[in-house]
Amino acid sequence: MSWKNDQVSGEETDKILEIARGCLECGGDFVELGCYKGDTSLLLAEILKDTEKKLFIYDSFEGLPEKSNKDESTIGKEFKGGELCVTKREVKERFLRANLPVPVIKKAWFNELTTEDLPERIAFAFLDGDFYESIRDSLKLVESKMANKGVIIVHDYNNLALPGVRKAVDEWAKDKSKEITVYQSMAIIV
Ligand SMILES: C[S@@+](CC[C@H](N)C(=O)[O-])C[C@H]1O[C@@H](n2cnc3c(N)ncnc32)[C@H](O)[C@@H]1O
To answer: Which in 24, 146, 156, 184 has the greatest CB count within 10 A?
Structure first.
């Protein structure tokens, strides 16, 4: 399966899929917070289709929230409130057209979600909310649910246009003994 993903590079996608495949051995399900049109979600669903694991995807389906002052940067002006808006129905229809199991698709702002909205255990989490508060809230939601050897990938950690992402990850990681490696724009947290 392939199409042009305008949010995640081809090499990043390959890395995401390689890591996600490695997480099939871990207990728990896969989640993506910030699924947008579902380009990465469809590829994750393909990996999971013959397994017991489920995919859970989350988005406001109203586009990005407003930036906080931690997101301000002289570049990245195109990332603003309301951008990247698609409907939940459009995303669901893409799975049906691709003949893939439809994931649990939850429409919400991340700060409205509770851990009850997430699977009991998470083997692989892809966090792609672009802004400080979105990543801070996503990390809070997944942290207590990660399986042993489960992996969190945070997109845009190394993206100067979206400085809030790195701030949220670094603040979160400060008092934890987490191994973070960087691949292109992504932070990979085991
Ligand atoms: C860059 S796009 C995601 C791209 C997608 N992961 C992919 O691989 O194609 C960011 C998405 O995060 C969503 N988002 C960002 N912050 C959010 C928040 N606080 N609550 C809910 N959705 C949010 C936006 O609506 C947008 O669809």
So the answer is: 156
